[in-house]
Amino acid sequence: MRYSAFQIVRQALRGHQGWPRAWGEATAKPRYDAIVIGAGGHGLATAYYLGRNHGVRNVAILEKGWLGGGNTGRNTTIIRSNYLQDPSAAIYEKSRSLYETLSQELNYNIMFSPRGVMMLAQTEHEVRGYRRTAHANALQEVQTEFITPERVKELCPIIETRGPRYPVLGALWQARGGTARHDAVAWGYARGCAEMGMDVIQQCEVTGIRSANGKVKGVTTTKGEIDCDKLAIVVAGHSGVLAEMAGFRLPIESLALQALVSEPIKPCMDVVVMANTVHGYMSQSDKGEMVIGGGADGYNNYTQRGSFHHIEETVRALIETFPMISRLKMLRMWGGIVDMTGDRSPIISKTPMENVFINCGWGTGGFKAIPGSGWATAEMVAKGAPGALAAEFGLDRFREGRFIDESVAAGVAH
Amino acid sequence: MSARRIDGGRLIDRTKPLRFTFNGRKMEGFQGDTLASALLANGQMLVGRSFKYHRPRGIVTAGPEEPNALVNLGKDKRFEPNARATTTELFDGLEARSQNHWPSLERDIGVLNDRFARFLPAGFYYKTFIHPRPFWKHVFEPFIRQSAGLGQAPRHRDGDTYEHVNVTVDVLVSGGGISGLAAALAAGKAGARVLLVEQSAHWGGRLDDAPDIDGQPAETWVAETVAALTNLENVTVKLRTTHSGVYDHGYCLAVERLTDHDPLGPGPRQRLWKVRAGRIVAATGAIERPLSFAGNDLPGVMLAAAVRDYLTGYGVAPGRRTVVVTNNDDGYRTAFALKDQGLEVPLILDARSDPGPVAEAARELGLKVAPGKGLAGVSGKGRVEKAAVAAIDGSGAVLDELACDCIAMAGGWSPAVHLWSHAGGKLHWDETDAMFVPDPDKPPLGADGKAMVRCVGAAAGELGAAEALETGWAAGLWAATETGHKPKRGAGPKAEPDEETPIAPVWVMPRGADPEKRAKMWLDYQNDVKVSDVELAQREGYESVEHTKRYTTLGMATDQGKLSNINGLAVLADARGEPIPAVGTTTFRPPYTPLTMGAIAGEARGDLFQPIRRTPMHEHHERMGAHWEPVGHWRRPYAFPRSGESVEEAVNREIVNTRQNVGLLDASTLGKILVKGPDAARFLDMLYTGMMSSLKPGRCRYGLMCSENGFLIDDGVVARIDEDTFLCHTTTGGADRIHAHMEEWLQTEWWDWQVHTLNITEAWAQIGVVGPKARDLLEALGGMDLSEEALPFMSWADGEIGGFKARIYRISFSGELSYEIAVDAGHGAALWEACLDAGESLGVMPYGTEALHVMRAEKGFIMIGDETDGTVIPQDLGLSWAISKKKDDYLGKRAQDRLFMTDPNRWKLVGLETLDGSVLPEGAYAVDDSKNANGQRETQGRVTSTYYSPSLKRGIAMGLVRHGPDRMGEVLTFPGVDGTETKARIVEPVFLKEAGA
Ligand SMILES: Cc1cc2nc3c(=O)[nH]c(=O)nc-3n(C[C@H](O)[C@H](O)[C@H](O)COP(=O)(O)OP(=O)(O)OC[C@H]3O[C@@H](n4cnc5c(N)ncnc54)[C@H](O)[C@@H]3O)c2cc1C
Q: Which of A32, A201, A351, B565 lies 20 to 30 Å from B349 when distance is taken between CA atoms?
């Protein structure tokens, strides 16, 4: 069913009893052309573009919990593409541009809000770093600009640009960056997949990967065995676990990244602000909550909780940057397990097992990449080899030392 | 005062009237009132508007679970949005304003949303506002943002302060009801260190519901127990302190409100307690559930226990004529309390067909009970006026209508299991009492792998006073024993057990209500989530609890579902046709109640936020008018502009003077790490690319440090002090990082090597005396022999100079003759002045970091952080000479042999000279003609540092260029961000050729 205002009126007159399921209640078939493990944003987008761009529709997406319940449903939804390195800028910009029309594409309002993202420069070193990024972006056809403290204040009046510790010296501004509604991205893609006849199977944990002669045959799950020709592993924080099932190791560390929101207040901040020197960033959700994030924990673990002292440091830093939040109250805090690579760039790659592909390593910043990453991963799965967007993100790069280091320009990469 | 204030009121002091305002209207209350009780006493039932439909909202509860009564409190520097009226203690002069309406609380235009409510069901926004595309950003979103949000955004800097305290206790007891008091007493008497916290301003919790304890009234027992606890030295008791979260290993947070009830009082506003607790006893009580009947969100519909609390605690009657609707015995307590005060209770509706003895008791008091009945709905204009009675199992055919002005609803209790759940405790569904209770077999585990939390009393689902005392006492003994204490034998406090008739769960009232009725039953009052919304979510496939929550926003309001969650789950379970436990709960996350950001930050604000580090010469620089630059936590002088001089002019003057005469640099911030031990040399050989073990005592060597991945991470001069002692200099920003790096390797890989490291950066003040007249200056100071023979380049010596005990290094970062003089930090300022005096006739001037940078660039020396960015190896920078060929290994060696690292096309260090002498833009890239497969312009190099050189009177730059050293003389094009282009020639990276050092 197509969603529209007209449809809502029609359904309202029938007491809303006529809405169909957004995605079916699927039971697994014995075999699929392709299986995607993980119904986070990246997994769902991979399946979606497999069908849409490559006509591969006999696809199942297997999810151990509920779809969108991993980091896709826990992140602070910042979308930007002002990355430094060429391969990053290419895939994030592709992604950002897909976000612009995603609501229309999916016929599902994912509320992409291009409200603008600014990254504050609070040391001379950061000024130089962002000037460099601005130069790189110009050549990558990503629209960014380095703006003055006065313009920062104009765009975000609640900011303290003359704080005693780290005065604002300028900012890298991407006017076409912004935020989107994270759940809606997962739900919209899931609905899109279901409409193409794909099976989104929840509560179905993959516990083993079966192969013959180095070639994948299928998976073992908590709901039985399922065969497939091709397999895409797209499970973020648990990538290491799945890789082990397929008999290879990944250069990934998993650790907790936390976020928090305040109680809702009336609109007071129209842009997204990131302050990397002090490891904090903030935006205001459409509901009015101030959405706040900081740095990742310093130790590896799988508990989705994280330690309080990180929250303390983040909040302290943001009170210096936005003094008005001091009397707001933290409503809720949570954490997600992020999959970090050594160079802070993702992995979109073939693997040692034939016909098994992996997409992971998005770490603290992969929400913004969902459409672009799905696009590139689908291409790789369909054609058996990565295309231009994914080419540089292979696993080989760690052996060769061909890193795509994004921590270079900015410490935090959300 | 108002007619709603009646007799009684255990918590208020009628001799102390207080004045306050609500929406500018003057009102009065008493000491001991909450803002909510005072508003009710003044007949103010309407207190706010809901989030989505802007429906009128009244007070529903008397505690922290309140979803409706949120106000803008105070003004200016003491303004707080979303303050909960039910937990805000009244004080004289309090100013409150209601929220989320325009133009006024009574006449709110947002109520239009309510008119169209049927077109705005759960998740409607995902299905519309899709076309035309620009409308979302420019029309729909701004509109939604305006009508959402609750309180006003604060406009001022916070006028209050906050503080943190750290404590370690054996037992943390959360909740000062009878169960918590019993636990604290048991643990305290056993000698355990106990901290007992209670969120409200009173001890005893729901003591009004309790029977006699140990033969005396509960109130007396509470008072005596608190007195006994206060007398125990090992026990600390705190009121107004909310235990807000439990983290791993028994780390807990509690927030104490010190002046919220007395804003003019001295000291900080709130204190955050960071508690390390051996064991935690959660005596946090239970939260009453509303009932879902049509119109249950009208002002005047309240929790039965809240109605009772306002009567007995505050002497306030929320209604004159109250219909009680219940599905358990507890509702009757409210009926009895009302009756006791002479207030009308026209009818008690009990969902149970056979309510048992309690109904008998009610009838004996002359109350009318209707078993097997519930509400078909309530109605009224802006507040409850009429209740319609129906059979509980039917579809809602109206049997009778009653006039009333208040509904007291008792839907059963939900244990407050939050603290149990924060760190991973699991729950199970108790079928008889219809509630989630802690599963004792799956507790949250502490560092010792054993249970660290125990719930007691109502928090454990033990609603009776006898059981509350018993479980509390037992938990106190458990916690004390577990933390190494030996409780003496002795009986705990006792009360008579109560026999109650079991609850009959009613999740939708009446059970057969049609969809139209279900669309008028509120689950989440603040976020406007109704029974029909949850059912719709399920129908559309959003049927995992988390999906339902997110799709409908159920439980995401500021009460975090304290009131709505269980009812919502039950409705969802019913829609799914599954039992409630199969649906499960959403995750309980800290904080228990919203936590002030200022309290999280604590004292460290303003100047105390990451305090600035100052060198011993800081004040002197300040007096000289230094233009400061933050470097790490330090402030360093960027330059010393004189009056009438711009910063750039100052930099140029300082460079020229240093090159011609002599300059002084405050180098104290450079990292200094002492590395000592029999294995020190071996350790440094691994750490640096160069050979340090062959360095002779008395000599210095420039060293490079790489990460495991081969990338250059720091550089600096190493001085060998004696056979097993080295002093390693690091960059200013690198000191802490490199020290940690050293320790990481020592502690995790080479733990058996005999090496100690010590960061002694701040123990020394260090002054660079630089320039052709440097030696003259030092000779003028007088002291040790500094001749070329006595102190050749790259050596150091201890001695005395100008009367100071000093260590002098002959090293240079500018190409000039240069000495670095290190003295005890305490002598730094004096030495600095002595140098200025001694050099006056030589033309000495201090110089800052920018002159330092330009001078090193003129000589082609690299700078960590400019030429390096974490992707550059020493070989890229022409630094192969600093890599020992004789060593088997050093950190990063193997990585540097990888394919990509040895690629002849790597970008390498060169000098860049613009054709027109201008300064190359910072961060610019050199382009190729082609584009790559992703349509991006290909690049072949970039600028790493770029300056104006006053010595050469032109722009100079360093950069990394694709096999650059082989391409001398080639001209590259650097586009700017503004469409301009700069052309520069590749040259050797040494701009100033003549030797000095
Ligand atoms: C607090 C926080 C803030 C963030 N902020 C931002 C931000 O502002 N901007 C941004 O761009 N990014 C941000 N991120 C990062 C972003 O959330 C992630 O990079 C992104 O969501 C990853 O999506 P995913 O689909 O790869 O992973 P996920 O959404 O985690 O999905 C992986 C799925 O795989 C499933 N799975 C795992 N194992 C199995 C198995 N054996 N069988 C079946 N299924 C399995 C999981 O249950 C999960 O649903 C943030 C992350 C966090 C935690």
A: B565
> Is the CB of residue A308 less than 8 Å from the CB of residue A262?
no
Average pLDDT on B162-186 reads 98
**A393, A404 in Cβ contact below 8 A?**
yes
Contacts of B865 in chain A (CB under 8 A): 125
Closest CA to B811 of B887, B901, B718: B718
Nearest Cβ partner of A307 from B247, B550, B600? B247
Pairing of strands B804-810, B907-914: unpaired
> A236 C-alpha vs ligand 1 centroid, how far in Å?
5
Q: What is the DSSP string of B202-215?
A: SSBSSGGG---BTT
pTM over 0.90: yes
Q: In the predicted model, what is the mean pLDDT of residues A164-173?
A: 92
Rounded Cα distance between B774 and B793, Å, is: 13
Q: How far is it, in rounded angstroms, from Cα B341 to Cα B308?
A: 11
Which 586-615 residues of chain B touch chain A by CB within 8 A? 587, 589-591, 594-598, 600-602, 604-607, 609-610, 612
pLDDT at A410: 43
- CA B68/CA B684 separation, integer angstroms: 65
Q: How far apart are CA B595 and CA A171, in angstroms?
A: 31
CB contact set of B243 (below 8 Å; sequence gap of 6+): B172, B174, B175, B197, B199, B252, B253, B254, B282, B284, B419, B592
Tell whether B244 and B300 lie within a shared domain: no
Q: Does B301 touch chain A (CB under 8 A)?
A: no
Q: What is the pLDDT of residue B116?
A: 86
Domain stop point among B354, B389, B411 = B411
Which residues have CB under 6 Å of ligand 1? A 37-43, 62-65, 69-72, 74-78, 205-206, 234-238, 242, 257-259, 293, 336, 338, 362, 364-368, 414
CB B985 within 8 A of CB B974: no
Q: Say what the pLDDT of residue B996 is.
A: 54
Q: Which of A1, A7, A13, A16 to mutate to test the interface with B (most CBs of B within 10 A)?
A: A16
d(CA A280, CA A116): 17
Residue B564, domain member (yes or no): no
Residue of A32, A13, A3, A142 whose CA lies nearest to A381: A32
Ligand 1 atom closest to the Cα of residue A334 is: 1
Bridge partners (DSSP) of residue B809 are: B796, B820
Residues in chain A with CB shorter than 8 Å from the CB of B146 are 266-267
Tell if the CB–CB gap between B546 and A89 is shorter than 8 Å.
no
| B149 part of a folded domain | yes
pLDDT of A391 higher than 60: yes
Tokens of B914: 């613009």
Same domain, B104 and B129: yes
Q: If you measure CA to CA, which chain B residue comes closest to A292?
A: B597
> Kind and range of the H or E element at A371?
helix A370-383
**Which candidate, B855, B978, B857, B876, places its Cα nearest to that of B921?**
B978
Domains contained in chain A, CATH given: 27-81+83-107+182-251+343-400 (3.50.50.60), 117-177+254-341 (3.30.9.10)
Cα-flanking dihedrals φ and ψ of residue B896, to 5°? -70, -10
Calpha distance B815→B286 (Å, rounded):
75
Query: How far is CA B704 from each of CA B727, B795, B892, rounded to the nearest angstrom?
Result: 14, 18, 11
The rounded percent of chain A whose pLDDT value lies above 90 is 86
Note which residues in 139-178 of chain B have CB less than 8 A from chain A: 141-142, 144-146, 148-158, 160
Rounded CA-CA distance B43/B58 in Å is: 11
B648 by DSSP, 3-state: which?
helix
Q: How many domains does chain B have?
A: 5
**Token pair in block for residue A14:** 């029938």
**Cα–Cα distance, B857 to B956 (Å, whole number):** 8
